Amino acid sequence: MAFIQAWNAACKSSTGPSKLIIPPGRFMVGETIFQGPCSSKPVTVEIQGTILANSDMSEFTGKECLLFQDVDGLTILGGGIFDGQGQSAWQYSNCRSSDNCNSPLPISIKFQKVTNGVVQDINLVNSKGFHMTITSCNNFVVERLNITAPGNSPNTDGIHISRSNQVRVSNSVIGTGDDCISIGEGSTNVNISGITCGPGHGISIGSLGKRPEENSVSGIFVSNSSLTNTTNGVRIKTFHNSPKIEASNITFEDITMNEVQNPIIIDQHYRSKKHSTGGVSLVKISDVHYKNIRGSSISNVAITLSCSSSVPCEGIELADIDITLSSNCLKKLLPLSSSCSFAKPVFKGKQNPPACE
């Protein structure tokens, strides 16, 4: 309640800038909504201390712990910590056993309908669910974050972006039990750079096509990043029985893989084998560029382009790819290879593993 009172005072204090300071110390919170719009602009929240998400799940009636909503001009900084205390809640997650994931655990920090937002120099640890989500936002910058959770923690994505435009995430260290960064439906003009990812499931576009009301994704640029000991490198994943949407104008450039299981992967059959779903994906993937991707793979198939038989991938380019087989690969006697189905990529420059036909 004290946080909300302080927020309301800062939000409505004037027509100029205002600041809310969370001082050094430890502060326990349940579900907390920082509601706009604000007459003050911009509003700065400086986190100096440690915010702890309550371990009592009854404190969370919604899907997030901290929610910033309907704010134009928001800056969050200060070097503080948000501890989701997820260890007490992960046992209740059904997100690994069910595609429906009917009871996702609370997100640590959610930004919804925030315009001109900046988040920098904060630390997120052990979220119950996702660490941060950016939804229906415009012109949003995230930089110099540290996000950490155990590699076996369920559904603890680092940053998830959806239905947002002009989002930039840079110079951050992320290691979780799921995607370091996931770019969901309706995202446009997203720039990801300078990310150190691992452990986790890599940097993903998707999953796409799970729900009928989803929108297309376009204008995604991922660069100058490294992934270490992740289950995937750079991935595009779509569900069967999807709406007819598109994922296009996508570039992955200057990426280093260290002991990564699936360095380059398009998977248009996401979870279909595990859950025996019928149909095909109707997500059209096109104009995708992989440039200067290098490093090591712990699986023999370093490149997998598994596209939809109904809407095959088009305009896929692989340029200057140099991925070697790790000494830790369990099948060292098998050669390193690439696999393509319903895709006819264009190859330029060095190709290791050899180009698929």
TrEMBL record:
Record-level Gene Ontology MF annotations: polygalacturonase activity
Coiled coil: none
Main location as per UniProt: secreted
Compartments it resides in: Secreted, Cell wall
GO terms of biological process kind: carbohydrate metabolic process; cell wall organization
Active-site feature positions: 201
Alphabetical keyword list: Cell wall, Cell wall biogenesis/degradation, Glycosidase, Hydrolase, Secreted
Annotated SMART domains: PbH1
Pfam families, per database record: Glyco_hydro_28
Similarity comment: family membership: Belongs to the glycosyl hydrolase 28 family.
The protein, known as: Uncharacterized protein
Organism of this sequence: Camellia sinensis
